[in-house]
């Protein structure tokens, strides 16, 4: 599903050029659950952003489902993203002014799903993450774990083929963290590909495969 | 999608009530100010544009060279109109127009004053002043017909039918009501008129003449459809010259109705603006105030960008295109503009009566007109788009990678758009302050000018009814009873120039000399009554020198203009009479305190009289003197109400127009400053918040509260200084071009004004900013440094 070869990514300031990702190649098959680990600054979040088409790459090739997307413009990336990729962030990133229901509904609005279908699909996914009873609450009225479940619901409501999770349990206590990991595992079992960046060895054990990075390169891969 | 936009916009407003109030309030205030000005402008440009024949109506004007300069004026001799109509087939109708002044109207026991106008019978056929009763073709055919406005009819006759009823005019003649017309609209140059009478009545009163040199009435012309104004103007040019056998040398031309109100100023024969200058100036002001309010909106919106950044990121990740985000933010600003607009409409509705009074216009909002609603909604759309454009492009440009990972920090660059906005805002505010001060100083400049006479205890009373006939008796009684120190009959109030002429002749006058002299008449003791300063000769004194009835007192500049080395005893001819100079006085201000004083000739008791000036005995209180004067007037002129004016009050009215501009400028300046300070306050709060970490580090490293407050305030001081640099030359140009050029006697724009304004702006900016700066400086650094 994801085939990245010889990826280079630099960050430039006026005087210094920092190499964020150096000649990196990875391959993620459809239905896989991959965890990316490594110390702060090793480039794992940059990699996730590039995989999620939030950031562009300087050199190399990125085949998404066999299509070269490295040179896509903003609009094409946005189109690909909204139909194929869901995101889960460490800090949840829910919109405070929208209710739980409306937050989850947002991606469906941008993919122009009709209102009746939207309602049905949102309710379905809220049931799945067991937050249906809080559908009319605003994010601040929820606990961290509940907020992250809403974020997961939002990530999957469009039935994406790929979910990218950036330290999804980083702001949660272990109970809530486990619940979220459980959710991700279930999604994976139902066929969704997951790429997760994490600092937690515990969380990484949920994955099929662990990619360990250092200084913008893949250090080693272990199969779980 | 749109529903979603408005939903989130509404919740954003609701959840940040303080911010929303500032934002909407500022916008509403700016919009209200702009709407008020636009209503005024709309009224000004609509003057007399409602006449269905407006493209065929003209006013007759004259041009002639005076002392090397081509002068243009709009008063014409009385025979001009009939002559034009008789001689040129292109001219279908004419009407002369001459004010009767306030006329005492008596119906039974009811007495009131109405403003009457003499017109030719075609007047109501030329102009669209609809008759409610009567036929425009014949209401003014009989000599004593009178056409009255509806409200005058109501005041005179109550709810009775006015047609066929009689009104006694000034205790002399009975006039018969032949027509009732709708009240004059507020946007016509004829709006003061309350009743019209036929020209024939003016002739009956002996007030008309056929003298081609007496330019005293307006002449209105209606051309045939399709007539070429250029051709007509070529043909009529020499009509006055022909009819006066060359004694008058002014050329006549017709000036089109659409220009009558806004373009009335001519310089050397060329049209040179007029009211249009003020319309343009205030259009500028309206645009400025609205711009300021929009800038405020931009500042407040972008200052909260960090708050919105996450939302932008999430939406982009969820699949939003940039243009849909721009659309969202524009929807939001249009919503805010809409709320602001509704609020503004409320403010306008409440303040319109007071504002109308201030600008002396009947302003109103035509809520029934679809044009109003279309323009109102366009105005909201325009404001919303203008105010929302920058925030929309700014906010939608955020990259989700940055905002969602918390690495989002705005750079504090030397040149960022928000600073440019603040500079623009302050530039406008400072320019307006300078303008206000310039106007106020101009008023003061005129007031400070030496007027040349003494206005203390001096009143004048118009000679109505039997006053002229009984003037000697009244005068004697006022003097003998000790009410008055001195009494003088005059041709006009001392504060008004009613007559001028270039037709005086004296020994040694060059044949081409067309110097215009103010002509004033006073029967006796004018120097004493008005407290004038004699520089040669003596005052009129009829009891000692009966020949003073043909005496003349010259002003110093008149004596100079006539070239007299020894003016006393010099003969002067005017109006077919032989006068002689008996005294010379220092110049005094008869007309405008802002213009040079023209040379002046005061003719003695053989002149004509309209007013009586009374210098009260200073030993009496004013109310005592007034009540005793009233008793005397009631005795000799019982039919008329006793009405008087204080000369000093009348003089003060000369400043009213300028003062009105001053008040308006002050009002809009205040609004602008208020809005600007709101914006600055919000911006300072944002900057302080943005730099919490920096402040924390500095404090940990030992910075004092004062040094941090200074650090944060310094930036704004620089912005204000830049604004000063832009505003000063601009306001200098603006005021010179649009305001001071109206006055010859000007208060110079001194550097002191700029120093004062600059200091004021700095102090105000510092006061606004420092509270935020000090708050930030006092904060505990532990709080700001902990969450990294």
TrEMBL record, chain A:
Name the InterPro entries for this protein: AAA+_ATPase, ABC_transporter-like_ATP-bd, ABC_transporter-like_CS, ABC_transpr_LolD-like, MacB-like_ATP-bd, P-loop_NTPase
Q: Enumerate the Pfam families for this protein.
A: ABC_tran (PF00005)
Q: Where is the ABC transporter domain?
A: 2-223
Checking CDD domains in the record gives: ABC_MJ0796_LolCDE_FtsE
Q: Which UniProt keywords apply?
A: ATP-binding, Nucleotide-binding, Transport
Record GO terms (molecular function): ATP binding; ATP hydrolysis activity; transmembrane transporter activity
Q: SMART domains, alphabetically?
A: AAA
- Which GO cellular component terms are attached? membrane protein complex; plasma membrane
Q: Which family does it belong to?
A: Belongs to the ABC transporter superfamily. Macrolide exporter (TC 3.A.1.122) family.
Name of the protein described by the UniProt record: Putative ABC transport system ATP-binding protein
Automatic annotation (TrEMBL), chain B:
Gene Ontology cellular-component terms listed: plasma membrane
Localization, UniProt? Cell membrane
Keyword Isomerase found: no
Keywords linked to the UniProt accession? Cell membrane, Membrane, Transmembrane, Transmembrane helix
Using the record's annotation, list all stretches that form the ABC3 transporter permease C-terminal domain.
284-387, 667-777
Give the residues annotated as coiled coil: none
Question: Residue limits of the MacB-like periplasmic core domain?
Answer: 20-238
Against InterPro entries, the record matches this protein to: ABC3_permease_C, MacB_PCD, Macrolide_Exporter_MacB
Membrane-spanning segments: 21-41, 281-300, 329-352, 372-398, 419-439, 661-688, 716-735, 747-769
Q: Does the keyword Transmembrane helix apply?
A: yes
Q: GO terms for molecular function, please?
A: transmembrane transporter activity
Indicate how the chain sits in the lipid bilayer: Multi-pass membrane protein
The domain of life for this entry's organism is: Bacteria
Query: Per its record, how is this protein called by name?
Result: ABC-type antimicrobial peptide transport system, permease component
